[in-house]
Specification:
By secondary structure, this protein is mostly helical. It is built from 4 helices and no strands.
Length: 82
């Protein structure tokens, strides 16, 4: 149920929902980014990519379809290909 609240909050441009997303999924997102960029990037660039991913989620949460998969899989995909 918390995922739906996060999604609805971001759709309504509630910044607290983005904070909740970071609290619940931030380690997952950062871990995916770090795994991909770890050998070739500085920590500051990984942090910048993390912020880019959050912005992408903020702008594209309406593309998430619960019928196609879990929110965490959606977040992993964005993190991986960003």
């Amino acid at each position: 149920m918390i995922d739906k609240e996060i999604i609805n909050g971001i759709l309504n441009e509630n910044e607290n929902a983005l904070e909740e997303l970071k609290n619940n999924y931030g380690r997952l997102i950062y871990g995916v980014i770090n795994k991909i960029l770890n050998n070739s990037m500085e920590v500051s660039e990984i942090d910048e990519c993390f912020n880019d991913v959050l912005l992408c989620i903020w702008n594209n949460i309406d593309c998430y379809d619960e019928a196609k998969g879990k929110l965490c899989n959606f977040l992993i995909s964005i993190s991986k290909y960003r």
